[in-house]
Amino acid sequence: MLSANAAELVRATLPAVGAELETITARFYDTMFADHPELLDGLFNRGNQRSGEQRKALAGAVAAFAVALLDNPDERPDALLARIAHKHAAVGVTDDQYVIVHKYLIAAIADVLGEAVTPEVASAWDEVYWLMAGALIAMEARIYAEAGARDGATWRPWRVVERREETADAVSLVLSPIGEEPAPPARPGQYVSVRVTMPDGVRQLRQYTLSGHDADGRRRITVKRERRAGVPEGEVSSLLHATVKEGDTLTLSAPFGDVALEDGDEPLVLVSAGIGCTPIAAMLQHLADAGDKRRVLVLHADRSEAHHALRADMERLTGELPAGERIFWYESAAGGSAAGEGARTGLMSLDGVEIPEGAVVYMCGSVEFMRAARAQLIEAGVAPRDIHYEVFGPDLWLGAA
After folding, report:
1. Which end of the chain is more exposed for a tag (fewer CB within 10 A), N or C?
2. What is the pLDDT of residue 338?
3. How high does pLDDT run on average in the chain?
């Protein structure tokens, strides 16, 4: 892994780099996009750039990778890298783009830290970058190969054959592949990128979990239109929600994502909040189709029953499992019957909930929700290594173990 000299210099400068990481990543993105504005057309999420989330995610990834190299010099942090590699594959990152990123990231470190970045220090951080980049390039090559693609060419057209209004702000789009080629395989819990052209002509990509499928090869995505103070936000989700109709064509990537349901005999706990129910619905369909007999406990939290997308599917599929059980929590009973069977009022609380011994957990929702749920699950006896999570958007939880 890191050479001895590089490790010594990285260890000595990591506090200074860590303290300035957000400034470094801001400088990196600003200078790179100034020279390469084409990267914002069909690759980088400009909404996450405006919010700063992508910059925080990059800073967290670089710091986490450097710390992992120093703490465990004989091991590569593959769990961290796999999540990033799948995100990169979903947007079609190619090898040559790592060269561009290297140029501007190393320059940003030198620019922000000034004289502290001697040629030796720059060389040490250069080594960190190429260890990370080299591992990601190799992982992404394998992921592309598994998807039957090369160099990010995973895109194909799909026709919208059905539009289902799930809630006032969530719509499901049932999609059928166009052309003779079979659709690439998908594992329950994986996501696809949807590429659309915005009104200003710039292409944008967003990831949506495959929330269901049928025997004819059709697949479903469920899109939620986010609102704050009654005003829609999320330019791609809002566009899809407002304009897509049956008969339209969408461009989708192959399925990606390292958090997918694994076969096994251990009991399962499937935890979600809000639109985080989408991978859970896909997992439940897979389990129901397979006639899985192990215990499956489904835990979901939402604002109200009326806001709970895919609720009917989750109820039906859990009911089809021989040992399925569900508990829903709704903050408000408005718009539904929160006092009904299998539903509770308030925030999710595992007090009095029997978590199966030896359970494997899959969860999806906001980072804040998952932190709270993870803490409760660990307190209930679930091993941290058995808790798997998916994050929508940039992963700001890279330090979780």
Report:
1. C
2. 43
3. 88
Provide, rounded to the nearest whole percent, the portion of the chain with pLDDT above 90: 63
Q: Is residue 170 a contact partner of residue 312, using CB atoms and an 8 Å limit?
A: no
Cα(286)–Cα(49) distance, integer angstroms: 35
Last residue of a domain, one of 220, 252, 284: 252
Q: Taking a C-beta distance cutoff of 8 angstroms, is the pair 254, 147 a contact?
A: yes
Active-site position among 29, 98, 129, 144:
98
For residues 329 and 350, the answer to whether their CB atoms sit within 8 Å is: no
| 244 vs 157: CA distance, rounded Å | 14
25 and 120 in a common domain: yes
365 Rama class: left (phi>0) / alpha (psi -120 to 50) / beta: left
CA–CA separation, 401 and 233 (whole Å): 31
Helices (H), 257-350: 277-290, 311-320
> Which residue segment(s) compose the domain that 26 sits in?
4-146
Query: Is the same domain home to 130 and 175?
Result: no
Domain boundary among 146, 174, 205: 146
401 inside domain: no
Other residues' Cβ atoms within 10 Å of the Cβ of residue 285: 22
Nearest C-alpha neighbor of 237 from the set 92, 392, 41, 39: 392
Q: Classify residue 327: in a domain, yes or no.
A: yes
Residues 27-44, buried b or exposed e (16+ Cβ, 10 A)? Answer: bbbebbbeeeeeeeebbb
Same domain as 205, residue 321? no
Q: Let me know if 140 is a catalytic residue.
A: yes
Pairing of strands 360-364, 324-330: unpaired
Q: Kindly report whether the global pTM for this prediction surpasses the value 0.70.
A: yes
359-371 burial, b at 16+ Cβ within 10 Å, e below that, comes to: bbbbbbbeeebbe
Q: Is 165 a catalytic residue?
A: no
CA–CA separation, 203 and 46 (whole Å): 10
Q: Catalytic one among 20, 127, 140, 235?
A: 140
The CATH number given to whatever domain includes residue 210 is 2.40.30.10
